[in-house]
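Bumping my old thread because nobody answered last time. Still need a sequence for this structure:
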């Protein structure tokens, strides 16, 4: 049944094939066995991960056919326990008058990063603590070496953070960037990516508590129905950490009432 302009629909979409995944992030186990992923290992379309100084988010899902647990826990719970999120793939198809659609597509392009404030002192302290609390016989580093390791990690992350922040507002290689469309306010960015109030803002404003991952422009996407003359469709694909950006899509549908938004998530198997 046709959906009125500005409203959204949700159905089940097939999972992407291996070609939809650019490259899985790389995990680096430090000396105490706790897994970190450095931000520059993301290698995903739309820019690299903003440094969070917290437990890593693992790689997006395996190709179709793999078995995954049902359900998911809130991002705050995952951050507290280091639990790996259940990656959820989505198709978003936007259709409507070609001129309005072109305006939307241009506004949606961005860097794909969120320029969070990075607390270098805390990050360095956390890395040092994780290294230094490992028994000396197991860690292979002196206390001075643990300090050096922590400082080197901090410098690398700060350098990456500066490059990522410089891309925001200038780079346009991510075709669907929520921060470009619905920017995180400066006072929320200043809290940092893992602050409870920052996560609450993302949850209320976007419906997801992190940026979209592996965002692609789906070539040849259709609206699933015959479009009127002068109308067109554009399709996007992306992963989230077990959440669906319903709130962001509802806000965009209200902002662009002439367009039709169809969000198709793939639930965990």
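Sorry it took so long. Here it is:
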């Amino acid at each position: 049944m046709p959906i009125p302009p500005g409203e959204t629909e949700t159905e089940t979409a097939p999972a992407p094939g291996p070609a939809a995944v650019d490259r899985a992030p790389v995990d680096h186990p430090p000396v105490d066995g706790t897994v970190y992923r450095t931000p520059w290992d993301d290698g995903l379309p739309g820019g690299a991960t903003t440094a969070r100084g917290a437990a890593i988010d693992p790689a997006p899902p395996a190709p179709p056919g793999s078995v995954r647990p049902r359900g998911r826990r809130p991002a705050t719970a995952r951050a507290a326990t280091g639990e790996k999120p259940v990656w959820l793939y989505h198709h978003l198809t936007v259709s409507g008058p070609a001129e309005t659609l072109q305006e939307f597509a241009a506004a949606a392009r961005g860097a794909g990063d969120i320029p969070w404030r990075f607390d270098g002192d805390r990050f360095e302290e956390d890395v040092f603590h994780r290294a230094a609390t490992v028994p000396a016989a197991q860690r292979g580093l002196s206390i001075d070496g643990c300090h050096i390791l922590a400082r080197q990690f901090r410098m690398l992350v700060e350098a990456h953070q500066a490059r990522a922040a410089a891309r925001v507002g200038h780079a346009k290689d991510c075709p669907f960037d929520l921060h470009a469309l619905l920017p995180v306010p400066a006072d929320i960015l200043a809290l940092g990516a893992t602050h409870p109030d920052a996560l609450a803002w993302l949850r209320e404003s976007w419906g997801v508590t992190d940026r979209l991952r592996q965002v692609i422009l789906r070539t040849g996407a259709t609206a699933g129905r015959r479009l009127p003359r002068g109308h067109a469709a554009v399709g996007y694909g992306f992963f989230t950490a077990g959440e669906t950006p319903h709130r962001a899509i509802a806000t965009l549908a209200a902002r662009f009432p002439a367009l039709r938004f169809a969000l198709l998530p793939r639930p965990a198997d």
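Strands lie at 8-10, 88-97, 213-218, 231-240, 260-265. Let me know if any region looks off to you.
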